[in-house]
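Entry:
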Amino acid sequence: MPSLPLTYPKTRTTTDSDTIFGVKVADPYRWLEDGKSPEVQKWLDSQNQLARSYLDALPGREALKKRYRELLYIDTISAPGRAGDRFFYMKRKATDEKGILYWRLADDPQAPEHVLIDPNQFIGKDNASLGSSVPTLDGKLLAYTLKPNNADEATLYVKDVETGNNLPGEVIEGAKYADPSWMADGSGFVYTYLPPADPAQPQDRPGLAVIRYHKLGTDPKNDPVLHPKTGDPTKFVSSYISRDGKWIFFVQQNGWDKNDLYYQPLHGQPTADLADSWQPIVVGKDFLYSLYAWKGQAYILTNEDAPQYHLFKVSLDDPNRTKWREIVRESPAIVLQGMAVIGDHLVLDELENVTSQVEIRDLDGKPIRRLHLPGLGSVSELEGDPDRDDLFFGFVNFTQPTEIYRTSISNPIQTLWAKISIPVDPSPYIVEQKFFSSKDGTKVPMFLVHRKDIQLDGSTPFLIYGYGGFGESMTPFFSPGYYPWLEAGGGYALVNLRGGGEFGEKWHQDGMLLKKQNVFDDCIAAAEYLINNGYTKPERLAVRGGSNGGLLAGAVLTQRPDLFRAVVCEVPLLDMIRYDKFGSGKTWIPEYGSAGDPFQFRALYAYSPYHHVKPGTAYPSVLICTAANDDRVDPMHARKMAAALQAATGSTNPILLRVETQSGHGGSDQMKKTLEYATDLWGFLIHELGAKSPQEASNQPTSN
């Protein structure tokens, strides 16, 4: 191990500051915002070298890496989607670095499978990953995007499925948010086009997005615009065509808790004339709406006057709000988080106490039956077509690797279609769901995963994971990456923080904007619950979060450094005063607020982690992870926070900044990089929290 305390790279400070609504906001590391600066690059190289010297020297590293190689290099497969007479699915063999998109004939179980897109061929070049992939209804063509270095930026292509060849001339840049939707006859598609940024205002780029239509065989540069730019970077726009090709829809997302819906009938190929013909379905309301069109009817899922969501059936001949007919009422105990039309029936994706259930109803909302799920967990995939009876779904929980089942709407018999086999033994572990009181008395749930024979004496190393934002629900999942931690004697807590969608839109809104502090209070209360009930103690407790969850990790680190022994902060937002000046920051203003608003500024400044690093504080061990090609959350957050913590800490605990190359916000899709990342992250936690070494873990007796 490197000697402690560590000698950190020299980092200069400046007198940069802003005065905002009469408050002087110091920013001594503003110079680290310029990621292209040679000085910043040199500093970053020094930081990464320091991190590597520490992480590479962790005891038991090679044994841990060997275990991760066993867990990660396995065969995987996704549930199949059908188009025409073909199945399309992702599959990765144990010898592959990246998942591959395959197709095969759907009605012949013995039919050979065909490689359609193999991202492994891009390793060593730009390390591109596969983004979206959308086949035509007949399955003969595929529109897909490739993302260099697994960033968000993308280029769209069209492939002939039978030959495997790309169609010449079908290349569309600016496909970051493309989401192509095909015409029923496969002659073209609508998509969202994002032009290059204005160099003077790169943060405003999302507001430049337009809806275009591309007819195959024509020059994409001449694609007609079906909806112009909004000019507002806080709004997202998208468009899609109904399966029968009779209707086209436009969606304007006004933040993360409201959107507008427009439509118009479609007669032949879309043209620029459509730009002036959009008719509103619902506009200007503070609710969320999603629409699926089938047989001239719109099925609209919304939280309008129903935080848990309800479902309406609406004739597209006259979708006036007064004509909507409620066919699935809101339930006080269930969140209706999604729906689809499969086999001429409604398939409802529901959440009750943060576990999945799936219900089948007829098209007027009459209940038919529920799917039989293998236990309490999450339905990870629902695949099927409105005009076919087949239904595929994936199921997973903390101790159950992914299983994919095949059933039908008309027949309740379920068969196992595929199962992912992972070399783990889940039998020594148990899953509990606990509810605890947050600071304001709100009851908050969390899942605990640990050995059955746990001793409630505070001796178990525990990791808290949370997200708490954008209405995203954190449901049970299976990750082989957690098993070395469990095998080392560790416990895991998934906390369902406010800001998520686990209990509907009110749960989300209670953790956003001026109420964001509730999210951090929930996490702190979860830590205190684990400590007070003997699961662990501060010197054996860690917290981990990424992206918005990285903000969570940074906030609880600065608010309660005494509660944790280690913190892992991944691709994080940390400077909440200037976050909207970088990357995709302005798109999150409706979720977090802006320093340009006096009330929102006070809320942001009150918790912004970068601005609450205090000199002389005994900070826990911190691993900050960022990606060199992250074009969503700018790496400047990680750089500035690492510099501030290293200068301020009054402890000898390490403050490390790890940089992943050829990788974007979502990490790498290459197993070799995933292996290295897992070894670093979990090796860090195992060492800092005093968990068992890999050698000790391998000798651990198994309980029944």
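The longest strand covers residues 400-408.
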